[in-house]
Design goal:
About 65% of the residues lie in helices and about 0% in strands. By secondary structure, it is mainly alpha-helical. One of its GO terms (molecular function) is protein heterodimerization activity.
Length: about 130
């Protein structure tokens, strides 16, 4: 049965997927729980991944600011990850872009807050108001 599935994949089904199946297999095998991969499972994972990326891109384009430029931007994707509940699991992978200087200030503030007053929310809120 697996041989027949492999033969099918080399034919028309393989053209139904744009992602390289060999790379998908490598990624799937990188999981310690995975010992062998059925060809149908490989194909379905590749197709599902393609459909997900297509949905993410379409949603981000429709709800993003890049529409004016007829372009899908990183900002559109990160906005989707931040604002849309369906895509919030991607927030760590698609963080909002910030300037390095702003990030360094945030790190410094976290360091100061951690040393001086741990878990004192009121003091942090007052500092935020002072900066604004």
């Amino acid at each position: 049965a697996e041989m027949a599935a492999a033969a099918r994949l080399t034919g028309t089904e393989n053209r139904l997927v744009s992602l390289p199946l060999s790379r998908i297999r490598v990624i799937m095998k990188s999981s310690p729980e995975v010992s062998s991969i059925n060809q149908d499972a490989l194909f379905l994972t590749a197709k599902a991944t393609e459909l997900f990326v297509q949905y993410l891109a379409t949603y981000s384009y429709k709800h993003g600011r890049g529409k004016e430029k007829n372009a899908l931007t990183y900002t559109d994707l990160s906005h989707t990850a931040e604002e849309c509940e369906t895509f919030q699991f991607l927030a760590d992978i698609l963080p909002k872009k910030i300037l390095a200087s702003k990030y360094l200030k945030m790190l410094e503030k976290e360091k100061r807050d951690g040393e001086v007053r741990e878990d004192d929310d009121e003091a942090e809120e007052e500092e935020d108001e002072d900066e604004a």
